[in-house]
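Backbones bend. To wit:
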Amino acid sequence: MVKLRLKRYGKKREVSYRIVAINSRSRRDGRPLEELGFYNPRTDETRLNVPAIVKRLKEGAQPTDTVRSILNKAKVFEQVHA
């Protein structure tokens, strides 16, 4: 099963995340199928590749709870159902 999850990178206490499509059995920082966006919790900055995310969701990818809340804030699910 493909999941949309956060991949951690950056220095200690200065963490950032990439939103990736990855096999659910892969480790957190393993090799993703595709990188779909960026999230910085310290500045609350997000950059999303919305067409690619919508494509993955339509193919059946399941977002984790954190990624789901990020996508809800960006109103991505409205584009999936349209």
User: Anything to note?
Assistant: The CA atoms of residues 28 and 64 lie 12 Å apart.
